[in-house]
Amino acid sequence: MRHLYRRLFLLSTLFICGGMAFAQLPNEKFGKPSSMEWDFNGWGESYDTDAIILCKTMKVTYTLTDQVFNNNHSFPDVGVETIDDFGKNQIDDANILVNYEFRLRTKIMKQEGVKHANIDITYYHGDNFKIVNNDMLKDLKIKVFTKNEKGKVEKRNVNTSAFVKERVDDNYMVMHVTVPDVQPGSIIEYQYNITSTRPTFLYDWMFQECIPTLHSKCDIEIPAIYQFNMNAPINRLIKSSVEAGRLAYDTNRPDLKRGKSCPTNHYMIIGDYILPEGFPLRQNQNDAEGKNNAVQEKIATLTSKINMPHVTLPAYLPEGYTHLKIK
Q1: Contact in structure between 13 and 19 (CB atoms under 8 Å)
Q2: Closest CA to 63 of 92, 101, 99
Q3: How far apart are CA 2 and CA 5, in angstroms?
Q4: Which residues pair with 35 in a beta bridge?
Q5: 85 Cβ partners below 8 Å, 6+ apart?
Q6: Residue 288: CA atoms inside 13 Å, Cβ hemisphere, count?
Q7: By CB distance 3.0 to 4.6 Å, which of 68, 189, 192, 208 could disulfide with 299?
């Protein structure tokens, strides 16, 4: 009996330690893969896959470069510490920038998965740029981490100057990113930013890729004057939350000292352990021939569309209410 208790204790200890180790994933800190990521080979049905996305994030923030335009000249001192009365004050869309920070870490598992070291970056770049300012793709950095025969991690920076750009249509360009000298076991990190002058537009976010995704996070903070309808996938793997925040203005104008911030809606949408659409699932339900036909369901893209972009809305959040609807 004593030996039985000892075995049970050891098994429970291993389970707890394993759970604690697994809880250290995902790792959202870029620049140095964790030891857990080097040892990680998948979960459940994702074992034996060609490659795995370890972490994929998008952070969206707004920069208000010029504070407000006072429409009520009869009351020059309407400014307060925060701008809540948009009947007298309005933010000028022309002075608002949208900043996107994209991060992606992929681990190559097999030789067949080397192709997943290459990605395409699509961004807005109108052919007739006289009408709308184009989005700027910048700060592209790519690192390849590989362990040598002695187990030491070697880091290599990829030269991004030779990547090819191609026009998709009248509105979008794509940059084809090709990463050379990748081998099974390598971890590749991509980092790039996009700056947009279109505050009423947000890029879609794909939770589900063609390879398993361990962690995907979309972090968006939007001025409350913009009313978006956002469709988030209804799925047990996707968790979403929203809270009220404040955004400070980036201005040095002495006549705008009083209005220093505006209310925001801060959204966090996270997806974990997501398998590709159509990926076979290992279940006990078989068909008449004994074959397993269960596959991973499709997870919708996170999409957003603004309603009435030229209508000014109250910039406050009553309890239990949000301008941005997550369905």
Answers
A1: no
A2: 99
A3: 5
A4: none
A5: 78
A6: 0
A7: 208
